[in-house]
Write a structure and sequence with these properties.
Layout (H helix, E strand, L loop, with lengths): L1 E5 L7 H16 L5 E5 L7 H9 L5 E3 L2 H4 L19 H10 L1 H13 L2 E11 L1 E4 L13 E4 L3 H8 L4 E4 L5 H6 L5 E4 L1 H6 L8 E3 L5 E9 H6 L2 H36 L4 E3 L4 H11 L1 H33 L1
Parallel strand pairs: 1-2, 1-3, 6-7, 6-8, 9-11
Antiparallel strand pairs: 3-10, 4-10, 5-8, 5-9
Helix pairs in contact: 1-10, 4-10, 4-12
The structure holds ligand 6CS.
Ligand 6CS binds next to helix 3.
Length: 319
């Protein structure tokens, strides 16, 4: 039996590491009866096209990031809101992976689109790379920021006064090079492997949002599997949750050193002052209303629920 797994990132990425571990565990636990083939970004098309391929069951498994999936499932855009998550990515990991309420809410939303949600996880903090320094929202004035293709991201950067430009991942490098855009955001490992730092001069860690992704499978395919195969899949993805947190931390740390080494004159703002972050936090608040307008009463409840859950886990941590 052949299973196909498409990822939205290239070889050497966090998603690739996830898919490789998935392959290893599935092949091992099926005693070699199942063989998993991985399709890295570039072999099958953009994120949107990859999600369509899951729908058509051309591939059975894929990564579907809310940054692009928001066009299909508006509610996942809650994961794109700025200054919503904890500063502690361990807490965020628990909220995303271990909270049954959140899992259930999203499982239903995905199921309506014939997808089965397998896992939600962070690939690390979004980091801005730009041609000029950014310290406060005003610095974004007129800056053409590339964003992923979900509508909420346009609202998120409009709120700072930027000119957001949605583009697929594959077009970011050349758009920066040709000055069609002035900046972009991605986790460090992605900035390194896509070489975005080569065509920007500043790197700014605002810790405004984690980059969150989801692993999905075709629902009909999954439902048609015998119970033990379904358990095989859910068992493997459950085991991957802690693994991937470790991987993303390592990758983001190592690649930052590599970037520094490859481009010593890159200016890096490793952290904004509390006052600077506060100005962004405040400017980002109206975007929550936009999210609610896009998703209605269900979206409002979802946002409240997520805020509440993050708070609960943060309180637990302190006690
Ligand atoms: O910026 C993007 O579009 C992409 N970034 C990452 C880190 N993964 C997939 C996503 O499509």
């Amino acid at each position: 039996i052949q299973w196909r797994f498409a990822i939205e990132e290239t070889i050497g990425s966090v998603q690739h590491q996830y898919a490789m571990k998935f392959k290893e565990l599935v092949e091992e636990r099926s005693n070699g009866e199942i063989e998993v083939t991985i399709y890295p970004y570039g072999t099958l098309g953009t994120s949107d096209q990859i999600t369509e391929l899951v729908d058509m069951e051309v591939v059975q498994f894929a990564m579907a990031s809310p940054g692009h999936l928001g066009k299909l499932i508006p509610e996942v855009q809650v994961f794109l809101l700025h200054f919503l998550f904890s500063d502690d990515d361990e807490i965020n990991n628990q909220v995303l992976n271990k909270d049954p309420r959140l899992q259930k809410t999203f499982a239903e939303l995905y199921a309506r689109k014939r997808l089965k949600l397998l896992s939600i996880f962070s690939e690390g903090w979004q980091v801005w790379t730009t041609k000029d320094p950014i310290h406060r929202p005003e610095d974004f004035e007129g800056v053409k920021m590339r964003v992923m293709t979900s509508p909420l991201l346009i609202a998120a950067y409009n709120a700072y006064g930027a000119s957001p430009t949605p583009l697929p991942y594959s077009e970011v490098y050349s758009a920066l090079q040709l000055n069609m855009i002035d900046g972009q955001e991605n986790p460090v490992f992605a900035i390194q492997e896509m070489n975005f730092y080569e065509v920007t001069d500043w790197m700014i860690f605002a810790r405004h949002a984690p980059f969150i992704t989801t692993a999905v499978t075709n629902r009909e395919f999954f439902d048609s599997l015998p119970a033990e195969r379904q358990e095989l899949v859910t068992g493997v993805v459950a085991d991957l949750n802690d693994y991937i947190l470790k991987v993303q931390r390592e990758f983001n740390q190592e690649r930052l050193s590599l970037i520094r080494k490859n481009k010593p004159d890159l200016e890096i703002i490793t952290e904004l002052t509390p006052e600077e972050r506060e100005a962004f936090r405040q400017a980002s608040q109206p975007v929550r209303d936009r999210f609610i307008r896009m998703t209605g009463e269900d979206g409002r409840k979802l946002l409240e629920e997520l805020k509440q859950t993050i708070k609960e886990y943060e309180d637990q941590q302190q006690n």
